[in-house]
Design a protein that fits this description.
single chain, alpha+beta, conserved putative lor/sdh protein from methanococcus maripaludis s2 fold, 3 domains, seven-stranded antiparallel β-sheet, six-stranded antiparallel β-barrel, Metal transporter
Amino acid sequence: MKTKIIILAVVAALLSGAGWYGYRTMRAPVAAPVAAPATAPATFTATPPSQDLQRVQVINGETVVTVSVAAQRASQIITQPVTVATDHPEVTAYATVVDLQPLFDLRNRHAVARAERESARAHADASRLQYNRTHVLFLDDRNVSEKSLQDAQVIKQTDEAKLQAVEATLGGLDSALRQQYGNALATAVVAPHSALSDRLLNGHATVVRVTLPVGGVTPAPEQITIEGSDDQMIVANKLSPSPVVDPAMQGDSYLYFADSVLPVGTHTLAHVPLREKNKSTAPGFSIPDTAIVWYGGQSWAYIKTTIDHFTRRLVPVASTTQRVRVATEGFHRGDEVVISGAQLLLSEELRPQGIAAQQCKDPPECDD
């Protein structure tokens, strides 16, 4: 009995101690959570000054951009040798595609008039011969009556009058052709066999009227180029002076034909080479359009001077055409011009350097 009492007392003591421990645990203050270390804000990692100074340098008075071979390969920077070319000074002129339908209509009328002339000429020849025979018989002891002679004479005169009328019509058509389209086109469309006429009729060629500046080009060159669709340059050959001019334009007008099809009425520009003595050609190097970058209102191209050095050089723009064509200075035989990646090199050259680059939090905004 005493043993049971002892066991119950021990159990009661244990339960009492467990209850007290739980009570103290619940009453204990909750510890504040440990704050995580503050994360430093992201900053732009600038190129170390020692490396940044080597990225863009001034060597022999020229700014040189250094790009490693691996970076060139990754950025697809491609070069090609410059090609020798000749700079031909030129001027621009306004050109309009001529509507040739009236020309074709005149050609058809001219063909009909020629056929009528041949028929009238045959009748006139026959009636003249008939009159001559009748006249001989009449003089030979009046073997024919005087009335027969008179009838033959009337027929001869009528046929001759018809021939004269047809020839007058044909002459008027010739004049109309020349007054509207010039001698070259007028001759081509009425010729029995003309390659130019065939190409125009089949729609394989175009005639343009080019108005040259007053006193700008003398004489008009035999060959020019005109701007087609998609900036395509089309070669055009001179036909003759244009008898019809555009009253809205001042200058001398000429007709040119091009082996290309352009919509009727199209207004475009013609590039006319200058051949004057004081406009001599100058040797230079052809710079592809893909190599050109624009900076400060001028056109530039990058030259690869060493395996990892690139230099920007000015490419002059023709003052009369505003088209980059041939560089007559600043480039030499054997120079490697950048034809892919030039804009990347310009951005790299203009990127802030040194301390300015480290202080800049947003590099694109540092361009200003």
